[in-house]
Hints:
The chain is an alpha/beta fold. The chain is built from eight helices and seven strands. Helix 5 links the parallel strand 3 (89-93) and strand 4 (115-119). The longest helix has 22 residues, at 180-201.
Amino acid sequence: MESLRQRQIASLVRMLHLNSEPNSTDSSYAATESKSNGAGVPIWKVLVFDSFCRDVVSTVLRVNDLRDNGVTVHMLLESQRSSISDVPAVYFVQPTTENIKRIVDDIVRDLYELYYVNFSTSLPRTLLEDFAVQTTASGTSHQIAQVYDQYLNFLCPEENMFSLHFPNTFEAIHNPSMTDTAMGALIDRIVTALFSVLLTLKTIPTICAPRGNAAEM
Length: 217
């Protein structure tokens, strides 16, 4: 039986192969490349991630692993980046308004050839619509090759140990001054991350929780 870490690595590798199985030419880009260079594998690409997704990737994959899967350069979304217009870019970021804006800015600046956008968890419908409106308005929607929800917003430092990577969570939950709105937002983040773990494991949990506290939310 595969461990959680192995499953997460497999999902990340699939993402790096443009959401196709490794050595597959199922994607349109891979099919085009295979015709042009006779091999098509690996497809050399740029990896762009935010700081959270950088930690997800670096916990389970080394630089050599990225190179073996066709990643020549990996950079933070927040950093200043130069144009590499003849290669596709794989984005792996959290679904936030700020990240959407940065991705659209990159597309408008024509930094890369095609854009394979992967979100660490489910992209809310409002943000998806905002993404569509911004790219349509700028006339760049044709450059977006894929948009995927990966459900990988957790760190896996050991085979079957994971971290949600939320600092000071215990303190925040037991802080008497925390508002109901803030508590609800924090619990939503925890639930979403735990859902990603369970989806990666392909399992349904049995949940036990005491009555009369935040767990009931």
